[in-house]
## 1
Amino acid sequence: MIEVRGLTKHYGPVLAVDSLSFDIRPGVVTGFLGANGSGKSTTMRMMVGLDRPDAGMVRIGGRPYGELGWPLRKVGTLLEAKAFHPGRSARAHLMALAAGSGIPASRVEDVLGLVGLDGVARRRAGTFSLGMAQRLGIAAALLGDPEVLLFDEPVNGLDPEGIRWIRTLMRSFAAEGRIVFVSSHLISEMALTADRLIVIGAGRLLADTAVAELSARSVSLEDAFLELTAAGAEHGSAVRADRPGGEPPSSGPPGSGPSGRGLYPPAANGATATRHPSYPTEWTS
Amino acid sequence: MTAIATPRNPAGHYRFSQAARMEWIKLRSLRSTWWTLAVTAAAATGIGIAVGLNTRNASGDLTNNALAGIAPGLLAAGVLGVLAVTSEYTFGMIRATLATIPDRRLLLTAKATVFGALALATGEATAFVAFFAGGASLRHGIPAPSLDQPGVLQAVVLSGTGFALIGLMGLGLGAIIRHTPAAIAVLVGGVYVVAQFIGGVWRTLMAYVPISIVANSMATSRNPMLSPWIGLGLLCLYAAVLLVIGGWLLIRRDA
């Protein structure tokens, strides 16, 4: 089990993560849902010890990440951005990580085959497409055959087959009794992949619930999520007297909601409605 | 699903040897590492030969002449040291590195050891090749210096050491500054520009500038500005200070 307790992080005056506490259990896919900038990546970076929390802690199987004996053999991590040198081949990249983790070289060939990069393993990783780069990141995460998988926005840049592949992979890992924690700002993807959901907004916990339970609260999971984030945003700023926070827009078809000015925070609206299609060009240019 | 290639929850803990092996694979798998070292060695040897060809009489320090190409090559060693750290930040590799070896002090120790060993091997090889090539290129019946003359072997060996120590200073600077252009600017400024400036204005201080220590104290067989061993000690001190500050910041800062 992963225990997140009172996790808090400031970047200068900005409070990125605000006393976040939740548990992640094995055997199910736990989704980590929130708008862009809601603190998902910061939380995941603190989980693996890259960023130091101002307060609180994360324990993985009872120990902080920094105290794991063989971190890559316990926790496989895919963070949102690329984490390899473009001048190095995919194989050399994985060989280095394997050497640092006491993992045999044969395992490198196994994961290269698993993610379908065995044919291009000698090519410099800088020449990879976004989808291939993402698969190299997934290969690195799977290298240690870890008990815990932490994926930050894993479907970025993947084609539909790739998206289905990673979804199947995560579900099968969970079915084996491992811990799978996957962040996304894509509600539809979470609806297909996750069993449980941790929802955050502005760095704070908005919901810790089963996907089915959250969907049942509104006409769709998307509506339920947007209500949650709207309520969370209002709670953070001044509560408006004329509109009680969290009131469900029970009437109207899904999608009519975002036009209601003020009900949805612009960041969340922009993120879910318009930001995503621009990702590939942003990343490949 | 996936083959279980490694036992779940294996006992034990990563150590220095795993960190060092990881760093060695990282260093050797970049073509830029080998290009930089090869070009540096070739240039240092070429300069030694050029100086040898243009030597008219045997009155100068022929050993120091043959090693004249070491000092310009120090820049490449320093830049390579800088890049060993800053390129990890540029490309996000630092996240994969620290996820594998979360003990940052151990990681920097391994990185400095592996890089320092490669730089030392390159520096020594370059110094010996340049020394013999420079000696062989002497004309006008000038006898080539030989390693059994007083102070000559020491000068050649210490030149190679200087190469490695300037490289480690670059590595420390890289850990402190983290951004490639800024770190290289500070390196060039600190090693070369300040040396020129101090050399013109304040001659006594010149002896303590890193590049001058290598060129005028360590790579000489006679009349060094400082005792060669004091020079070596000073360079070790500079590198150690930069590495300790870099390590302290690496531990403190978010990656």
## 2
Amino acid sequence: MAVQLQACDPVDRGARKEDMMVGVMVEDERAALAGHLRAVAERRDKAAFAALFAFYAPRVKGYLIRQGCQPAQAEDLAQEVMAAVWRKAGLYDPAKAEASTWVFTIARNLRIDAIRRERYPQVELDDGARELPDDRPAADDVVSTGQRARLVQRAIATLPPDQAEVIRQSFFQDKAHTAIAEDLGLPLGTVKSRMRLAMIKIRAALGEQEP
Amino acid sequence: MTYHSVKTSPPNHHASDALLLSYAAGALPSGVALAVAAHTTLCADCAHRAAVAEDIGGSLLDRAEPAALCPDALARTFGRIEAPEATPPPRMHDVPPHLAGLPGPLRAAVNALPDTRWRLLAPGIRQIDLNPGARGGGSSRLFRISPGTTLPHHGHAGIELTLILQGSFTDEVGRFQVGDLAELEDDVVHQPIVDSAEDCICLIATEAPLRFSSLLGRLMQPLFGL
């Protein structure tokens, strides 16, 4: 089954203008999604959850299929991810992460739990993880969450093909940088430097400077 | 002896962008992922870069081609929400006091273990195996190494990560202190020596088994099980 996903395909220049229009639409929708998450957290609002479901469940299923999941397993996992969204909605902090990033990490962890039958190590909110003293301005001081997603999307869409390829293999083919180097027949240092350059571009798009 | 969580200056040795991207994508073996997750609880810089890498995932999810669900998928999901969770997260016992100061992701790993005692491995070296089944071919172990002790000379295939949790060591690459992550690659042969006054406690996670290059190391290999 051929699933189209343009975000990582910088060759498709024709889609660029359309991408930006989609970006604008999604940004309005995104503000609504964050509101729906809050409504689920605060009031267990089923209508708000249905709206979240309509947006995220088909995307999670599509993403899982793109990663090689069979449709039946992707369906099962997508429902499980959405059930976790309901249960964990109170933990979502819009100042720290985009709603889609948060849903992505839930889907990532549940997929690995299901496929490898082991838990993917993760950082819980109370681990003090991302609360360390840091002189960097908070993410939402530099660019508002919402704007952030659009900037990351555009940065990914404009990566050079070799950098887009290593991102694609990481996220869609489940390959660590070491496996990518092996498969592409490249020195590990080359793959690491492509990933580093991609990260620098994305951080630059977010208004960050390389330290 | 008790593990002390001592926060000193920010770490000097960080995770590479490639490692953080692979972690964010969900592509790392679990032992190596554990070391990265634990490091991000000790290093604001790497926590931030991991969050940016996860934004890539969020962005790809946003743009994923939607796949239609079963017509009754929403109702079934509400059914799951109302049903008690089939498999509650593993929790065999609380983290014992001698490991209570560990970073959260490591506490979670210790929580799932039936036995959390330090096992003597060689003179001056004790370990707790965090992945006794060694699924996926990699490994993750906590080591407690006495001052002045040298780990056997070893090389390895794939990634090897060492996260310092107490004390410090020095190897060919430099000096590693609390919070530092040593990220070694294919075919680097190194020989760390503990140079702190107290025991050095570290997490060593590998993608593939270690290869000891010295005779002593080869003799110890079955003991390490690495």
## 3
Amino acid sequence: MTGTAPSLPPPSAWQMYRSMVGVGLVCGLLVVTAFVGTAPIIRRNRAEALQRAVLQVLPGASSTRSFRLAEDGHLRPAGATATGDQLVHAAYDDRSRLIGVAVEAQGLGYQDVIRVLYGYAPARDAIVGLHVLDSRDTPGLGDRIETDPEFLRNFEHLDVALSDDGAELAHPIAPVKRGARTASWQVDTITGATISSTAVATMVSRSAAFWVPRIRRELAALEAPE
Amino acid sequence: MEQPIPPDPTDAPVPLGEEFRKGVWRQNPTFVQVLGMCPALAVSNSARNALAMGLATTFVLVASNVAVSSLRRFIPRQVRITTYVLIIASFVTIVDYLIQAISLDLHRALGAFISLIVVNCFILGRAEAFASTHGVVPSFFDGLGMGAGFCWALLSIGAVREILGSGTLFGVQLFHDGFQGATVMLLPSGGFFTMAGWVLLLNAVEQRRSRRAAAAPLAAEGAR
């Protein structure tokens, strides 16, 4: 003998509204509470991570200040937790002398957007360090842009001297095949990670062409005491 | 007028230890049910990432199981899937904020796969197949057991891939400096190979155990 369970009557519209709106309300409260509770910690983590990255690309720095490029072309101080475009981070030694400026650049890699931070030292007319902030390129291949010591050595003294009129780079940064580097403004790419390493060289080239002339013009603002 | 809901026959006591153990071994979501493969293969290229993804998924699974079970008499069947997805998505968003607060590097390593926990089929599967028809305590143990099973499965895949691919375990160097890891182990294909190896090994263990269990009564009878 087989028996069937008594079927429940269909729910009313009120029951369905009540459950969905009720659950939505509770879920909304939970999500917003979690956001409000974690937002200051996340902001602090981001600021600390950026600070670490700036100190890494500009060795010898002990403090940093952020500046934003205003519409009039001048650099103006921004808060320590400022976010968004048109930001640069000036780094100072323990006597508050300007060591260099860290600039973020981004471009399309093999799988997704790659974000890097590079350090520009005006006194040396060169990029003196590079740190990959975000990359989803292939583990073991594309991610060598973060770990390959020979590739990273390209950015320990990458010539970004300006032309005589100070409006553009005298020699645009150029990616070349590994081992073919003959000039200090060229970047040796990585065999097996050609697309990712070329993307890094290209994004730094574009960013430096934009930022270096402007930073040069605004050195007085960057060197001014806080 | 609202109709009274009859008592739930599935509220009968269930051995909680068994609810926990079934997810860890007999119904392991990764090695037996072969569910949630997307994070299992994509994120398990290191033991640390695998463990973090396992723990994040366990949190969402336990929390959503408890919430669905608590609200099972309040949610009409017609809108249950929508409501379950809303509950799961909320817990995933919370875990996403928590991971960002704990470690930005970890959040970066897990990437989009944290958000994709929302569509991990075994979380919705447990909500629908178990939590919606069982009490809060058994649902908690079911989620904990399934989460623990997912955790150790991911960790065992991640550990093998990290050792063979990078020569490290939890970032600690295991071999000499000149060790050249097998890059394929860090790619998704390495995840498939490792997963296949573990399934093969665990099936062999399970078959051997079944054969022994079947042979034991016959041996006892023969001895008599």
